[in-house]
Amino acid sequence: MTPSTIRVLDAARQGRAMAWVLAIMLFLTVLAAAAAIATAGAAGALGRELAGRATVQVIAADAPARQAAAARVLVALRQSSAVRHADAVPQAELVRLLGPWLGNGAAGDDLPIPALIDIDLADRADAADRVRTLLARVAPGATLDRHDDAMAPVGRLLTSFTLLAAALVALMAAATAAVVVLAARAGLDAHRTTIEVMHGLGATDVQVARLFQRRIARDAALGALVGGVAAWIVVALLGWQVAAAGSQLLGGAALGQSGWIAIVALPFAFVALAAAVARHTVTAALGRTL
């Protein structure tokens, strides 16, 4: 089949409208894929950051008693096999953190600010229970707050966003296949007479299907180029803003090398999908009707 034969099937350039539709769909698909990768990375980074992290609160109205209890707890924690690391949070740091809400009152002795101790739990299933048992013995009023428990709703929210974005990618892939099927069937109807002539001249269904496949793949490639480049620019700009924010949580949302490889490969997979669907659709339709 010669290029002139391809142009016969592409009279009136009807495929250009499909190319722009596919460009928009690919643009949205790449953004959804980038969102899925970013939120999955953020959820993973959050889990790694908070794994084993906890805070012990020593609560007592009397400041000297509170400080003495905190000192006992700190010594006991550092000696426990359930704790890898323990550090007391300086009182000045607590005053600074409470300052925006309490003002100058945060520095007063009349306000019973709990003594805090940051700890890293050992990598064992019963570490938290062992620490709670230790606290009940050394300082009955002390409590243990695990960071991963406190941030669990945020982790579940990020996981939900990841699943939603992945579902959008799957839906956009299905919609792309549907658009290609409609375009291929419209092309068959528009060029039915030409196809019958080609069959009369000896062309096979596979040869005709290959022509449609090439035409639709070419239009899909145009859409992939436009939509893919636009999406890459948007993703790169958003990534630059995330990096500039300096947030630890947002930093985990960076795509990374593997994420960018997936994003760059997506338009090529998009074109391959369009070509495969077009070939299957035309071959099946020709086999049924011609």
What is the rounded Rg?
A: 31 Å
Class derived from helix and strand content: alpha+beta
Number of domains: 2
Strand content: 5-15%
The separation of the N and C termini measures: 19 Å
Strand/helix succession: HHEHEHEHEHHHHHH
* Main sheet: strands, sense, barrel: 4 strands, antiparallel
Share in helix = over 70%
Which runs of at least 5 residues are low in confidence (pLDDT < 50)?
1-9
**SS elements, strand count:** 4
Account of the 3D structure:
This protein has 290 residues and is of the alpha+beta class. It folds into two domains: 182 residues, no CATH class; 82 residues, no CATH class. The chain is built from eleven helices and four strands. A four-stranded antiparallel beta sheet has the order 2-3-1-4. It starts with a helix and ends with a helix. The relative contact order is 0.19. The N terminus is likely disordered.
Question: What's the short story on this structure?
Answer:
The chain has helices spanning 3-9, 15-50, 63-79, 91-102, 127-138, 147-150, 152-190, 192-200, 205-245, 248-251, 256-289, and strands at 53-58, 83-88, 115-121, 143-146.
